[in-house]
Amino acid sequence: MDMQQTRSTFEQVYLQYIKPVYFVAYGILGNKEDAEDVAHNVFLAYFQMEEPKRIRNLKNYLLKMARNQAFECLKKKGREEPVAEIPVKDTPEDEVGTCVLSNEIEEAVAKLPSDERQIILLHIKGGIGFAEISKVTGMSLSAVYRRYRRTVKSLRESLKGGVYNE
């Protein structure tokens, strides 16, 4: 493969998977800058691989790589729980056109335990289905779905009286 084809392939993979990779890292770390660093490191590692074509499911591979690197980042920083920080403006997710949540909802999501926050962000902002979230997190599909439903219910309760109730 020549240099032009390699560059084109790199751009396609990066553009296709940057959003979900970022949200895996962000769901664990809860910090914009650290999540961006992890996302960029994932793609750097992938494109430095000798034989990337041997990977059967590229998306799952990149998401697991992001998850592992995010947890490694937590260890290096000496924390077990992520920082509860949800960016509101000037974030990569705004640039790629995902839904932007209100400040009230963002604050409620920031207060969630890391595993629940990760599922919510991956599904809602990252556009990742429950089956893929299950593979990335190592939870069963039914556990991911139950946790998502329970977290949505909990968010509704915490926002009760706001404009987001049905």
Plain-language structure description:
The protein contains 8 helices and no strands. With about 170 residues, it is an all-alpha fold. The chain has a single domain, classed as Butyryl-CoA Dehydrogenase, subunit A, domain 3 (Up-down Bundle), CATH 1.20.140. It starts with a helix and ends in an 8-residue tail after the last helix. Mean pLDDT is about 75; it is low at about 80-100.
Helix content: 55-70%
Number of strands: 0
Named CATH topology: Butyryl-CoA Dehydrogenase, subunit A, domain 3
Radius of gyration: 17 Å
Instruction: Please write the CATH class name.
Output: Mainly Alpha
| Assembly category | single chain
Our count of domains comes out at 1
Q: Helical element count?
A: 8
Structural class: mainly alpha
Strand portion, in percent? under 5%
Largest sheet: none
- For the terminal residues, how far apart are their CA atoms? 54 Å
Please state the average pLDDT score.
77
Which residues form runs of ≥5 with pLDDT under 50?
81-100
Please tell me what the overall shape is: globular
**CATH superfamily descriptor:** PhyR, sigma-like (SL) domain
